[in-house]
Specification:
The chain is about 35% helix and about 20% strand. It is elongated. The protein is of the alpha/beta class and about 325 residues long. The protein has 11 helices and 13 strands. The strands form 2 sheets. A 7-stranded parallel beta sheet has the order 3-2-1-4-5-6-7. β4, α4 and β5 form a beta-alpha-beta unit. The longest helix has 23 residues.
Length: about 325
Amino acid sequence: MKLAYLLNTLPHRGLYPAERAKMLLPALNTSNYQIFVPSSNKSLIQYVEKQNLVPCLYTTTASLLAALKSFNPDCIIHDSGNSEKDFIRRLKALACPLIHFDDHGDGGLLADIIFQTLHENTRDHTKDHYLYGPTGYIPAHKPLYKNNNMLQDPPHIVVCFPHEDPENLTYRTLRHLVQLHIPLQISVLVDEHYKHDINDLKRFALTRKSIRIISTDEPESYIYTSDIVISSGAYTPFLVAQFQIPCIILCAHEEEINFAFAQEVNGFANLGLGRKIKQSYLQNAVMEILLHDNRRQAYMKKQGHHQFDSNLNKVVELIHETIANKKAEEEIAR
């Protein structure tokens, strides 16, 4: 099978789609593939190369379509965000199955199957080729579990907003937390692509020895040690749910507010749009988890209802099934 993988990421969602590709490509058992990445997404290119993968860079839609036509794939995986109908129509001219991940654009209507992990509560779930729910979340890391029965002394809060953090919710959150005059350990995680001045964060660390500013590409290494995680509402909640840690959500973008997974029913305290959050709301949410053990345990129990270990096999099975169905349709048409 010749596979074309169209990969792109958004600054507020982080690099998870690249992690998904890293897990999915070997499982599809094909060595004949090309990963197409826009030349403007420097952080994604850097990440893909770190995984010893060679990206095929393109500058315009026209150059991408020309490269795809030359490659002549048997299947296209689109994990590039929201697509437009005109672009997907041109992909369909290549006459191969189209597999999409997390596509809220009009182009998704033309795909053969969409794994809609980041879906909204209010979305119409009647489209047959949309697979709504967490199936499309493929874990990239094996979780390490700690004993969550008792809070640490002092409690440990991990602040983890992915990637560039365009709204600088990392800084806003830390500024609010330092006004809580109770003993806390606070670990603030940023990666090398954090677009704001890290020295602004380090100045807070000078005021309290219990505050750590940590540059890391492996947030899971610190999340599992925490009592509370504060993050945004896209892919990080799925990672947190693997560890079953109470999590406060500050949405990094309007689109995240209605995403179905990072909600109360699944064990998350979703406070809405992060840039509009009042200090008192965030502080109250933290104190509610610290003071009410039944509330904390309820969050962990709800998160524990979700198991992602079989998702990779399910996704691979459905992709192969979609390809087989497409071939059968073509045979009938002939």
